[in-house]
Amino acid sequence: MEKSIFKYILRYSKSQQIFLLCVILAFYPFLFITLDLPKIIVNRAIKSGGAEGPFDVPIFGFEISLDVEQITYLLILSFSYLGLVFITGGFKYYISVYKGRLGERLLRRLRYQLYSRILRFPTPHFKKISQGELIPMITAEVEPLGGFIGIAFADPMFFGGQLVLILGYILLQDWALGLAAAALIPVQGYVIPRLQKKVNALGKQRVQNVRRLADHLGESVSSINEIHSNDAAKLEMSRFADRLGTIYDIRYDIYRRKFFIKFLNNFIDKLTPFFFFSIGGYLVIQGGLTVGALVAVLNAYKDLASPWKELLMWYQQKEDVRIKYEQVVEQFEPQGMLEEELQHTETEGPSPIKGDLIVSNIGLADEDGVRSLEGISFDAPVVAHVAVVGDGGSGKTDLGLVLSRLVRQTSGTITIGGVDLTQMPEAITGRRIAYVGSNAYLQAFSVGDNLLYGLKHKPIQPAEYEGAEDGKNKEKMAEARITGNSENDYLADWVDLQEAGVEDREALNRRLIETLTLADMDDDVYRFGLRGVIDPEKHPEVASRIMAARQAMRERFTDPAVAQLIEPFSADAYNTNASVAENILFGLPVGDAFDLERLAEHPYIRDVLDKVGLTDDFLEMGKQVAQTMLELFADLPPGHEFFEQFSFIESDDLPEFQIILGRASRGPEGLTDDDRLQLISLPFKLIRARHRLDLVDDQMMQRILEARHTFAENLPEDLRDNVAFFDSETYNAAASLQDNILFGKLSYGQAQAENKVGALVGEVVDDLDLRETVMLTGLDFQAGIGGARLSQGQRQKVVIARSLLRQPDLLILNEATATLDAVSQNRIMENILRVRRDQGVVWILNRVPDAQQFSKVVVLKSGRVLETGTYDELITAGGEFQTLLEAG
Amino acid sequence: MGLQEEVELLRNIPLFAKIEPSKLKLLAFTSERLTYSEQEILFEQGDVGDSAYIIIGGEADIVVNTPGGPLVVATLKQNEIVGEIAILCDVPRTATVRAKTELTTLRITKDLFFSLVIEFPQIAVEIMRELAHRLEQTTTRLREAVAEAQG
Questions:
Q1: Which residue of B22, B30, B105 to mutate against A (max A Cβ within 10 Å)?
Q2: Could you give the number of structural domains in chain A?
Q3: Contact between chains at A692 and B111 (C-beta distance less than 8 A)
């Protein structure tokens, strides 16, 4: 990248900068006339005593004669002045917008280039530079560059020109005054940069310190568990405070110096008028200068201050931006970056890798010269199944990384099918070769999109835009082209079906499920699916099949053993396993309006209670619940786990309820509105079957049913979208698949109910051939940031499934299953080796005995190959392999 | 069955007999009532114990695995507590418990049990008393058995 910001700006925006300068040049004549016109108006047009025409208008030295009345003359000049104000304003507007756009475009380009460089960093570089440093560089640090790029050449030209123009004008009026106005400019020009230099150095320090602060922040987030488990919060806080202190010191120093510079400037600025008043006044008194000229000069000088200020500001900004640019760019030029062509070369169609994998004399050393691999050589057909074994320090993990080119060897060559691995474009290494490490990372997409991530290399099917959308998109793409950004439409369909070996989306879905099964992830995704929700309007066929499952489930309720597990929802029956709130709502809340936890707060609910005459009863029930809670929990220390698990009232609120109950004992008048709300809220949480408080008796159930019906019948139109009512004949969009199948509440107090119901649902799902449908819904499960909503094992399985999905010619597994349980490990290895019978596998093993299933075994120790051969040869060879095997 | 009835029931259990009703109410409120159908297993010998059970209704067999096959060593009836040894001493279940008839139990989790003991020392004292009583009984029986063997 260009070393200096000016070179960078010139390289990418030379023609625009020149155009901008031309516009500015065109602007000057107007500016000059705007300056001159007031003087003409004052000196020639505004003269008492009715001067006679013709009047002359001097324009750039020419005199144009106008044969008009004095008033007309004045009006012509005044309107010309108004016109000029419009023209100069228009110029200024156009120039500002143009500068802004220029800056934003270049900033966009710069950010894009920096990001694309990160994607080409040699992977070991990420050990040295942290996220915390990279993020502020691309986001905040380059931001001021955008503002500067537009003015890099324009401002010195524009304001410098103005300065010269105004100075010239003053000189024209009177050379002595002109000299006085200009006298101090060289002084400022000499002193200010010297003072600025120190500020620049401090600015540099500040940038570095802020970066370190960001780094520390990122580190704290990543190591939050360590901080807690080592009681290191105080240490970290002190470290943070220390950094903040350093930044404060630097900042304070910068402020002092910066504002001193400002002070000095202001002082010098005000010094000049002193000369005007004294010298200019003297000249006027002496008759050497007209008053009009002095006014014009003073006016001009006032105008002089602003461009001069702008020029100084430009200078300070330039210094600031120059440092930032240099400091950012030097971080983005590590040694050994991936060549740009390798990342961007597009290959035509799939070109399978054939032939042999030949590793010859590979060595790997880190920047300190520590060698982890030395003289590694072996070869095997690409389609072979190769196992690499060795102890922890054998360098086997590094070998896996080198074989997949995630790390480049420092010596030796690897050829695959006769092509040097280091020369292969990523279009081959990232498509025909797959790599799975031991610490999988998922993107914050759904599980399904994470799987498809491996199939998205280029847009396959352009997105379709209609009408105005189309135009907008074309503009978007044109803008991307101008700024050297990617012109691939992110919204296009990127999924390469061919790579997955399927014809259409349906086949792809089947294939997704197939690969998940191979990776032993099918049950997990099935469970995700049962917990998932679908939009029945988008997937009517899924909804109708789930409804069939509900029907099948209902038929099973005739079996008493099943019936006692679940209490189905029925519009005309109180559900004793659901809370009072759920019974009233008889549906699921959509949005926040009818949040079940705070249902009593909704005015409509209170209306309903009033209407069916339940308000007083609920108040009474609330009192009893509060009484019971006080009785049960008052003796427990605050914060006891029982509060969270069992109490209706939090420990902090208990004393308040004590007071409320005290007020309540004095009769209903004693209660405030808030008290009433607090009390009425309590019975909403009651679950008859669970809480056994004998508060919801048969009669109460009947009345709550009445409330349920009133609630539904009178629900205002604007609240209708806030509830997804339970209806035995329609799919409930707010409920999960499982809840839609069960359409009822799990009964309390049945041993193993959850497992039994799970099995029951499984049976129904299988009877109706629904498992695949459920799993497809499971693919929509959101993996969360970094895949955090999945367990480590599940993440690993998803990544393994992804690597199988695109059927690579060579699959490199770097202890990819090490974190899984033994059963899963066995199952996955067996599956992979079976489906890849005719395709290559290099597996860096974490369990030595697994080597038996491979056609070739490479044994490493201390970064060197000790033995190669088949399992059978090696177990009798009496070498390292045997030792490893015996060690377990 | 309501909370009050459960409290009455708990009071009939020797272990809880002397504990004041409000504590028993808390115990009842915070315990889960579980129903088992006939022949269903509460827990298996060798499992890690995580809770004790108080039988509210029905009967349960205590089955011990012997070399000669499973052997029913006792049958528990209403008001009896089962499974407390595993949670007190942190040993695996010493026997399998199976519902002989339809069975209703109050399940007291280990955490709950210990919280209660820590929170209310009188429960601990009661448990000590009960265990000492059982030990005394066992010792008496042992003495009798030894005497029998010698005589």
A1: B30
A2: 2
A3: no
CA distance A667 to chain B (A): 27
Q: What is the pLDDT of residues A472-494, one digit of tens each?
A: 988 899 999 988 898 888 889 99
pLDDT tens, per residue, chain B with 151 residues: 577 778 887 887 776 777 777 778 888 888 888 888 888 888 888 888 888 888 888 999 988 888 888 888 888 888 788 888 777 888 888 889 999 999 989 888 887 788 777 777 777 887 787 778 878 888 888 888 888 887 6
CA torsion angle for A295, A297, A298, A300 (degrees, to 10)?
Answer: 120
What integer pLDDT is reported at residue A48 of this predicted model?
A: 59
Same domain, yes or no, for A361 and A401? Answer: yes
A380 and A321 housed in the same domain:
no
Give dist(CA A37, CA A59) in Å, integer: 10
Q: Which of A133, A406, A222 is nearest to A788 (CA)?
A: A222
Contact A692 B30 (CB under 8 A): no
**Residue A153 tokens, joined:** 């050449």
Question: Do A595 and A681 touch, CB atoms closer than 8 A?
Answer: no
| Judgement on whether residues A313 and A415 belong to the same structural domain of the protein | no
- Supply the range of the domain harboring residue A422: 356-432+808-887
Q: Is B24 on the interface with A (CB under 8 A)?
A: no
* Domain-located, residue A486: no
- CATH number for the domain spanning A426: value is 3.40.50.300
> What SS3 class is residue A539?
coil
Q: How close, in Å, is residue B63 to chain A by CA atoms?
A: 19
Whether A633 contacts chain B with CB within 8 A? yes
Tell me, yes or no, whether A404 and A326 share the same domain. Answer: no
- Non-local (6+) Cβ contacts of A419 within 8 A are A353, A428
Question: With contacts defined as CB-CB under 8 Å, which chain A residues touch B29?
Answer: 632, 646, 691-692
